[in-house]
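A quick word before the example. In earlier lectures we treated sequence and structure as two separate objects. From today on, think of them as two lines of the same record. Here is Cytosolic protein written that way.
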Amino acid sequence: EFETESTKYLISIKSGPNWGNSSQKKKMQDNFIKAKKVLGTSGGINSKSITCIEGCCYGYDAKPEKGTHIKLCGQDFWTFISNGNNELYSDIIEPIGKLADEKNKELIELTNAKLNLFTAEFISEYCNSDGSINWALFVARNSGSKSSYHSN
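And the structure line, produced from the sequence above:
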């Protein structure tokens, strides 16, 4: 939450616009209503309006008015919490994107290496000398009975 001279903002921060199911979203709306009621009757807040914000770190919502609150997503949310800095969203996202790209290359290399190991192990365990899969062995090892139970 934060305040300006005339408004107290209550903010629920979510990862993105599709963060929860209908009951979770209803719970958030109920919490907003309850918080507004409590703050409105607790004294000292009466001189300020209370605005509830559902803030999503990415994405967009073309219709932010939700009745109980305002839903701000992506650039709209970052601009709101930065007091009008329209570039904050890209200032934050661009370095994250570059780092993600670097890490993604490393992840691809590690994934490919592990895939090669799994493939070699599979060939060694379940393939015939001509490279074809020995399905009888594969099925027996993965689905064959391992118990002493035998029905009559």
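Notice the following. The chain has four helices and four strands. We will return to this example when we discuss secondary structure assignment.
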